[in-house]
Specification:
Metallo-beta-lactamase, Chain A; alpha+beta; single chain; about 325 residues; seven-stranded mixed β-sheet; 9 helices; globular
Length: about 325
């Protein structure tokens, strides 16, 4: 996901914060959600309430295409066929380590889109409530280095960007980091300056190769296309498997229509190939997929449909991690 082209004071201002109609429901929806994959725990921590947006603000598609797939309602699309999407991070507990995956947008960061610029959210407080104070994180893994997947790499302290997770090693795929050092525009340059370069300067970054194993049962899986070095995260424990998709899949609509890409894919042919491979393997193996922007149900299982695939939700458990 990237700052919206229509989120810059332009046409219709069509993204809107929706899905929660009152404060109590909002609070419940923002609570941590946990799943168990064998001995591995995955916890979702949200940064912003669920959004609803025009399909063509995120994907190269229309409401007419969305309307073909009734199974997307009511969880993944609104009654008027807007796409629901989350900004959220995952924390993996495995092998006695805590791995933060895709730390969202971050506070105080100037971004092109009004919706995501200069945020002031209690994300770190939510993370602590979930059982993961920032000092307890051992690894930070960015599936790719777009602004909404690496923003909390750093925080603003005394006018300087400093690492948010001071005791963690930050893991970037080599190809992804190489791309980030050569930004194609001011937005990309800003992300590098405030969310990537400071952790590199602090000596906290390890550049890793595809298929890198972080701890036993947790490894990277190359999935290029959305960006050059995009990686998913594969989890395996006690015969169960799962994957955190990053932006290989932005929305469940792309299971039904896998040839549809986001507006922001670097190589659409590669993106489609990566997506179809993920969906096919998940449908055969029964792996759980965690969609990095999927609203609830954020975790899904995949099955073949007459055309493409469809998804069935895997409900998690609300609440904090078990105290050690």
């Amino acid at each position: 996901m990237r700052p919206g082209r229509r989120d810059r004071g332009g046409r219709r201002g069509r993204r809107r914060m929706t899905s929660e109609r009152d404060a109590a429901r909002d609070s419940q929806a923002m609570a941590p959600m946990r799943w168990e994959i064998g001995d591995i725990t995955v916890t979702r921590v949200m940064e912003l309430p669920t959004m609803a947006m025009e399909p063509d603000d995120l994907l190269q598609t229309t409401r007419e295409v969305v309307a073909r797939h009734d199974w997307l309602k009511p969880d993944y699309v609104t009654p008027d066929l807007l796409l629901r999407a989350n900004i959220q991070a995952f924390v993996i507990e495995a092998g006695g380590k805590r791995i933060m995956v895709d730390p969202c947008v971050g506070n105080d960061k100037p971004r092109e889109g009004q919706l995501f610029s200069m945020l002031q959210t209690p994300f770190l407080e939510r993370l602590a409530v979930a059982g993961y104070p920032r000092e307890s994180i051992d690894f930070v893994l960015c599936t790719h280095l777009h602004f909404d997947h690496c923003g909390w790499n750093t925080m603003l302290v005394g006018g300087e960007w400093v690492p948010t997770f001071p005791n963690a090693r930050y893991l970037f795929a080599r190809a992804e980091y190489a791309c980030a050092t050569k930004p194609q525009g001011e937005e990309e340059a800003a992300v590098y300056r405030d969310s990537v370069r400071p952790v590199m300067a602090a000596g906290l970054v390890d550049l890793v190769d595809p298929l890198h194993e972080i701890v036993a049962g947790v490894r990277l899986e190359p999935s290029p296309g959305h960006t050059p070095g995009h990686c998913c995260v594969t989890l395996e424990s006690r015969g169960q498997t799962a994957m955190i998709t990053g932006d290989a899949l932005h929305h469940p609509l792309q299971a039904a229509e896998p040839d549809i890409c986001s507006l922001y894919c670097w190589d659409k042919t590669l993106a489609v190939a990566s997506r179809k491979s993920i969906l096919e393997i998940a449908s055969i193996t029964g792996a759980t997929l965690f969609g990095s922007h999927f609203p609830e149900p954020t975790a899904v299982r995949v099955r073949k449909a007459a055309t493409g695939w469809r998804m069935d939700g895997v409900r998690g458990v609300r609440g904090s991690a078990t105290s050690e």
